[in-house]
Amino acid sequence: MHHLATLSGTGSLLTREAASAVATYRIAIYRHTSGPQQGVTVTQGVLATAPWAVVAARNDGSAILMLDTGEAVDVRFVDLGASDTTAIFILTGKLPAF
Predict the structure, then answer these.
(1) The dihedral of CA 36, 29, 79, 21: what is its sign?
(2) pTM of this prediction?
(3) Cβ–Cβ < 8 Å for 67, 93
């Protein structure tokens, strides 16, 4: 895979069932360079936010992350992080500008 960009900053995590929470995030963007998925762009991110926001987003299955640029991206949590305030996610909608 070829690394295209890493985006990081402080934004807001919005869930369907709970209020928004401040979230610090890092998103890595890669492109497959060979194999059956050649040319496919993939993402993986990690964020830190309030514990209740992690639980709410995990229960909902998805959330919206407002980046510090004001751009909104759809995220799906795939795992909890090392603490109760962190989570690992992927982008499920359009990629942010980079």
Answers:
(1) negative
(2) 0.86
(3) no
